[in-house]
Amino acid sequence: MDSSELYHIKQQFVLGAYKTIVSLALPEPNSPTYTPTLLYQARAHVALNDPKSALQVLPADSDNVAVKAATSLAKYVSASQSADKDAVDAALEELRDLAVEIEGDDPEGSEAEKALVRVLAGTAFARAGEVEEALETLGVDTEDLEAVAVIVHIYLSINRPDLARKQFERSKRWAEDDLLLQLIESTIGLATGKDGYSNTSSFYTEQLGNPSLTSPHILTARGVTRILRNEIPEAKSDLDEALTQQEGDVETLAALVVAGGLGAMKKHETEELWTRFVSRHPDHPLVLDVSKKESLFDEYAAKFVVPPSVA
C-alpha cells in the first residue's frame, strides 16, 4: 500500500499539479518511497515540457526498468523539441526494447514498475503518431488505470469516443472509485458534451475547491468547459488565473484566444493575442486548423462567380 505521502503525490500528479511535485524534496535514497517519488517528479518535469530537468534528476546508471523508461521518454521529448530525428528514433527504440524486456521469461521489476514501463512507452508511441503500437503496448484489456487513461486519450484524439467510453465502462467493473477514474469520465464528458458538460464542470469545480491543490491544468480544463457551456466571462477568469500560475502555457493561451474571439476581450486585444500565438506556436493544432480553413475559404472564394445584377 502506498504511504500517505506517496498517495498525496499521486493525487497531485493525476490532477496536473506538476509544479508542486517538481518542488518537492526527494526522500532519502534508501527510503521505499524514493524511487516512486523520483519517477513522479521526472514525469512532472516532462509534463511541463522540461525534459532536460527530468534527465538531471534521473540517475543515468539505474537498473530499474521504470527509471530507464522515464529516462527514454524524457530523451524522446527532448529530441522532439530539437527536431533531432536520429535521437527521436533511438529513444523510441529504447522504449521498444524495454517493453519487450518486461514481457520476457525472467523479467526484472515489480508489477507496478512493469505497468509504468508500458504507460511511458505507450505515451511516447502515441506522441510519435504510432497509435497501433501505443495501443498494443498499453494493452486494451489492461487492468492498470493509468494505461486506461492513456488509451482513452488516444481514442479521443482519433475521434473514437465510443471506444473511449467502452474503456471507461470496462474499467468501472474492476477499478475502485479512484480519482483517476473520475478524471477519465470527465475527460470523455469534455470531449463528447454529455449532459451539457455538467458532470465535467462539477468534477473540475470540486477539485479546485481543494485548498491544497494548485493546478493550472484543472483551471484550464474548467475554462474550456465553461467556453463550451457559453460561460465566457467565467472562462476568461479561469484562464487568466491559470496563466498566473503557469505563465505562457500553450493550451491555456489557445483557449484564451477562443474565449477572446467569443467576446471575452476587446477585438484588438484578441487579434494581438492571436498574432503572438501564431508567431510563437505555428505548429499548434489551432493554428493549423485556422490556416487550413483560411486556405479553403480563399479557394472557394476564387471560384465564386458573382451573378449579374438584375436591371
TrEMBL record:
GO terms for molecular function: structural molecule activity. It holds the Pfam family Coatomer_E. It is found in: Cytoplasmic vesicle, COPI-coated vesicle membrane; Golgi apparatus membrane. It is a peripheral membrane protein. Signal peptide: none annotated. The keyword Protein transport applies. It comes from the Eukaryota. Keywords: Cytoplasm, Cytoplasmic vesicle, ER-Golgi transport, Golgi apparatus, Membrane, Protein transport, Transport. GO terms for cellular component: COPI vesicle coat; Golgi membrane. GO terms for biological process: endoplasmic reticulum to Golgi vesicle-mediated transport; intra-Golgi vesicle-mediated transport; protein transport; retrograde vesicle-mediated transport, Golgi to endoplasmic reticulum. The keyword Cell wall biogenesis/degradation does not apply. InterPro entries: Coatomer_esu, TPR-like_helical_dom_sf. Belongs to the COPE family. PANTHER family: COATOMER SUBUNIT EPSILON. The coatomer is a cytosolic protein complex that binds to dilysine motifs and reversibly associates with Golgi non-clathrin-coated vesicles, which further mediate biosynthetic protein transport from the ER, via the Golgi up to the trans Golgi network. The coatomer complex is required for budding from Golgi membranes, and is essential for the retrograde Golgi-to-ER transport of dilysine-tagged proteins. This is Coatomer subunit epsilon.
